[in-house]
Amino acid sequence: MEERLETSKHRIYITGKSGYESLNPVLVFILAVACGATVANLYWAQPLLDTIANAFHSSTTAAGMIVTFTQLGYAVGLLFLVPLGDLFERKRLIISILLLTALSLIVASFSTTLHLFIIASLIIGVTSVVAQILVPFAATLAKDHERGKVVGQVMSGLLIGILLARTLAGFISEFAGWRAVFGFAALLIVIQVIVLAKYLPRYKMELKLNYPGLLLSVWELVKTERVLRVRSVYGALVFANFSVLWTSLTFLLAGPSYKFSDALIGLFGLVGAAGAFSANMAGRWADKGLSNKSTIAFLSINLVAFLLMILGTKELIPLVIGIVVLDAGVQGTHITNQSEIYKVRPDARSRITTAYMTTYFIGGAIGSATSATTYEAFGWVGVCFLGTGFALMAILFWFFEQFVLNRK
After folding, report:
1. Distance CA 35, CA 132 (A)
2. Contacts with 214 (C-beta within 8 Å, 6 or more apart), sequence order
3. With contact defined as beta carbons under 8 Å apart, do 7 and 21 qualify?
4. Burial label, 382 (beta-carbon count in 10 A; 0-12, 13-18, 19+)
5. Alpha-carbon gap, residue 405 to 344, rounded angstroms
6. CA quadruple 404, 398, 333, 290: dihedral sign
7. What is the mean pLDDT of residues 144-153?
């Protein structure tokens, strides 16, 4: 049975039950796992950068371009693919894009040159935006009073996927080689296609827009919605923090100070588990109207984390504590941002996601590119000062928002 849910600006078509009834705990779990499996593709390579650099006889700066191009690809996908979630039937769109993801992962696994691997990484980034089609999907199906909680639960799955990707990548590389990591990732995506084909409800909004008009409407949302603009700035700066850490951390841990193997480096992904817990907490705080206070708290945590990690050049304990603190701060800010922007325009959540996440990953690409260059020139201490700079910029922007923008 096809049912219509009417709103002021569009019609939504969902097979079976209404949207609110369709979002049961099983579907939330499936969406969370799918998000985790998909976004993991952005992070498989991170603990392997030193190994890949050695395999292709390249510099750390060149290997760092793997992360940069993956994130730039993700930004391209966010800009040109995610808005289609407001235009096309989402189930078919999601499955089609995931099949392209699996193909690009296979290409990465069989790459014979670093240039080919980077091209495959770019396509992996473009197609892995499925996670950002699924998150607004969950937000749309959720009831108003539990939207923050649902987004937090789905994002927790996404964050766990990020953490496990690094850990699994390290272990698989250690025992089967780095190429096997990307073969495993391709298999994981194929399994997700099968599960989503069976359980994901069909969903479509009827919008009287063509594709160019859809893309232009993203810019219109940015111009008209101040909350979206403000939260996009926070997002870009905190993800720059995140990328500054994880791009250069591999080089530090594989270098002369620690000489860790791929498996040990991968275990550091689990150190960031605090991010998954802070995601749930941030979502619940947002439902209670505490987003403003939680934002400055999470931003301050990011600053403290990099100050701690300055000692991490040779001291493991402050490095580990700093990673835990930073992941909690970054993910807490991110979930708070998403909870706020999804309140703005219920009829345009995919396009809102596009605007927010595009700036988010542009910030990440800037962070990863400057991190690799900074590490090569100034070492780990230079990387920590770079991260401190991004954290200070975010805090200063919060004060600008409070005492300038909010008084206009």
Report:
1. 8
2. 83, 84, 86, 87, 207, 351
3. no
4. middle
5. 18
6. negative
7. 73
Structural domains counted in the chain: 1
H helix or E strand, kind and range, residue 188:
helix 178-199
3-state helix/strand/coil string of 272-288: CCHHHHHHHHHHHHHHC
Token digits for 94?
């999601």
| 319 contacts 199 by C-beta, under 8 angstroms | no
* Region of residue 223 (phi > 0: left; psi between -120 and 50: alpha; otherwise: beta): alpha
140: domain CATH number?
Answer: 1.20.1250.20
Packing angle of the helix pair 147-176, 178-199 (nearest 10 deg): 150
Per the structure, the complete domain to which residue 366 belongs is given by 2-407
* Token pair for 155: 């994002």
Strand partners, 14: 3, 203
Residue 5 pairs in a beta bridge with 12
What pLDDT sits at residue 41?
A: 93
Q: What is the mean pLDDT of residues 206-224?
A: 84
Q: What angle do CA 147, 148, 153 make, to 5 degrees?
A: 95
Q: Are 268 and 393 in contact (CB under 8 A)?
A: no
Q: Cα separation of 3 and 347, whole Å?
A: 17
Q: Which of 241, 247, 102, 108 is nearest to 166 (CA)?
A: 247
Left if phi > 0, otherwise alpha if psi is -120 to 50, otherwise beta: which for 57? left
Give buried/exposed letters for 289-326 (b at 16+ CB in 10 A, else e): eebeebbbbbbebbbbbbbbbbbbbeeeebbebbbbbb
pLDDT of 371: 93
Residue 4's beta-bridge partner residues?
A: 13
> Given phi > 0 = left and psi -120 to 50 = alpha, else beta, which region is 177?
left
pLDDT at 145 over 80: no
Record the tokens describing residue 397, joined without a space: 């922007």
- Packing angle, helices 147-176 and 274-287, rounded to 10: 170
| Residue 103 · residue 112 · CB < 8 Å | no
Alpha-carbon Rg for the chain in angstroms: 20
Burial class (CB in 10 A: 0-12, 13-18, 19+), 144: exposed
Q: Render pLDDT for 221-244 as a digit per residue (tens, 0 to 9).
A: 999 999 999 999 999 999 999 999
